[in-house]
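Collaborator request, handled under Task 6.
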Amino acid sequence: MADAQHGKKLVLIDAMSLIFRAFHAPMQTELRSPGGIPTKAIYIFVRTLRKILKDHRPAYVGVAFDLAAPTFRDKLFEEYKANRPPFPEELAVQLPYVRRFCRALGLPMVEKEGYEADDVMGTLAKQGHERGLNAFIVSGDQDLFQLVDQHTFILKPSRGSTDGESLTVRMTPDEIVEEANRKHKAETKEDLPKDQQQMIKTSEEAKLQGALQHVKLSDLQLQSVPGVLGVTPSQVVDWLALTGDPSDNIPGARPFPGQEPPPTPGGKKRSYIGPKGATELIRKFGTLDKALEDYAQEEKQSYREALRDFRKEALLSRELATIRTDVPLEAAPADLKPVPVDLSELRALCQELGFTSLLREFLEEAPASVHAAAEVEELRTPESVNKWLRDLEERAPVAIGLAVEGEESFSGRLSSLGLSDGRRLASVSAAPALLDALKPFLSTAPHPKAVHNSKLLQLLLGKSGIGLAGVTDDTMLYSYLLDPLASSQALEDVVLRRQGRKLSSSVADWADAARELAALFVPEIAREELKRLYEEIELPLSGVLADVEAFGVRLDAQVLARMSGEFDKELTDLTLEIYDRAGQPFDIDSPKQLGEILFEKLKLPGGKRLKKSGQYSTEASVLESLAEKHELPRKIIDYRTRTKLKSTYLDALPKFISPETGRLHTTFNQTVARTGRLSSSNPNLQNIPIGDEFGLRIRSAFVADPGCRLISADYSQVELRVLAHLANDPVLIEAFTRGEDIHARTALEIFGVPPALQTHEHRRMAKAINYGVVYGLSSFGLAGRTGTSKTEAQRYIDAYFRRYSKVKESLDRLVEEARTTGRVRTLFGRLRPVPEIHSQDVPSRNRAEREAMNSPVQGTAADLMKLAMIKVHARLAREKMRTRMLLTVHDELVFEAPEAELGPAREIVQAEMEGAYPLKVPLRVDIGVGQNWKEAK
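Structure tokens returned to the collaborator:
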């Protein structure tokens, strides 16, 4: 049997070691399931398993778990592991899922009551060796190094790895390097030029990597174990017996916990054997027994006394640290052959936990998992289209799928449509004759229609002169309202997330998927009380946005080209100023060179090196802090700002002008922002700076057609008005009702300075405080915005809440609502899940509390803007105006109106926006008119 198995791999996975590493791994955001369960440890653990299986393709696998029952070590020493903190609750809820994933992946789990996972793995590794197997133990625990020999290796996840991508062989990397160095010793170091030394070093590294990759290590003797200060695997246990192991409460050569050490001559404080001392003693004596026997020969008094006085403790520590290799297991290595994965269980787990990317990978590895669509009828002639439509049952719901060539935007082209009525599937090319045949069906409402992304369908049909009517179910909008935190609302991702299946390449299958999703979502929308939000805001808005995108906005490319040239000159001048203040030319775009100039040459304070690159950080916050002390960082900020604006807008915007219309057609994203706000892309117009010179200059290139003017309509302080309404705060309500300057009112309330005596600084501080409260800023955050101390910022916050007490009560209620339900709502019922509200990570929890406070305010403001867009659009159409909506950016709407309609158009826009919804405070809109957006603004 040994010959047949020789060289095959047995992988033994230390489950708890990997789970704990995954649990404590740093991540920018916490992972939680749709139900709020923390999932980071599960996700990283599964990723690591997949990496192991992919890279090593083992013949046998065992996932070893520790059991809660006491082990033989607990009987030997009652205090064993007694100092460990309580098991984290957020990890405890993840363990059952880890086991379920192991079973679903077909990986045998091994455990034995009375023993630890280390003993189980040690026993299986030994048995595997006897059968000719090479054992690979996956663990971050250095105790397991004692098992390493020429047939047993350690795989250890790299520090900070969160996706299973980094596993390194830890058997003999030091020895391989030493062996390589010995072979090349005569040729290296000072005897050769540096370039040849580097070539040899590179060669050695390549040999090392090759050895690790192929694990051809049988001809090398292990001389040291990395991470254990140079002792051999056979000496690890003796080393641990001298140092102890605080994580397991193994004492080492020192008193048992709670016992007083024997006094020393003269009453001197005792010192014990640490890692370095243990290495010295093991190297000197060879073994623990020899060191205890010949302790009198040790020259260092503290070591000599520890060996003499704590013999019993050291011997017990060795017994506790020794991994058993004779555990009576029910399973042998031959029983650890992986079985085929259980795809249905993997699907269920991934859907429950929200592991969409993992599920996609599992399904891609199982081609048979593609949903088997019904037979699809290809409609190639107008007659076949008409027949298919005639055979529809009266008022039968029909789902539509759409295939697009190019971008899913105005620049794209509809290539085909899929149709499903629940009984039949059909596909139709978007040839003009076939679209004409479909036109009566598409542009009238007798048959309710379901489609994923009705805005895109309306936009693309409109290019062929075909309208879209009768859409009742937009499954993209449904999915967004129910799961606003999802990273993607694309049809394939929603189907994967909600149905656990892959879409085929058939556009008819896409139609049928929309039909199935609609049936799934409609009751959920009703249950979550989102139907009104969907029917009165989101669905009608999709039609408005389609019209806005189709019409586009006129852009004067010559204005942008002229500005780009001006920016070039300004950047050249700035560059020379920067060189002058730096005292030398350098690459301004190089963070490394900039950091060296700022912190090494100019000796500016606060230089911090980044861990990964070792370079100084030169991010914006660092430069802004330095700009108060030196002019160079301020010039760098100006340089970066102009460079970014030039590349992002001045040079890029003309490329988006459509050759068909001569206008720019941005895409408004309705299902991206978690708060309900709209965003835009291709190009992104939301990030054009507001209220500064650069932003206004760029806006001057957005112009009206000849004979027309642009109208800018901007909500005034809409989020603060929403806050007053939601909080029902009498002071805020009074101020807005009387038409007061709210920032002046806050300055009066906080600083006691009447408006007539207020300075620009008073107003700036009051504005920062007003909006800081809306965004849930802490004293630290407000201090950063206002340039005050944290203590002073806290005084401002306390004073604000004393005067606006109902605001404080409202924000506290929102946080409590999030803690109770895991989510908050806007005035119109929009859901905003806050999964991290119960996080054990304090920064994550604080961020979640700020989101709980801000989301209802920001989301309600977004909903008000959407209502306003719907009402203005409908009124303009109802009164047969030629004025058209062009853009929505933040709290602003931009229109193009013929000069003859300017007066009525302004009145309509102002009336509909200010009357969008009755709040306890009036909504106010600032209106401007101009030949370009800058003038109108």
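The cover message to the collaborator said: "The first helix runs from residue 2 to 5. The domain at 378-551 is CATH 3.30.420.10 (Nucleotidyltransferase; domain 5). Please let us know whether this matches your experimental observations."
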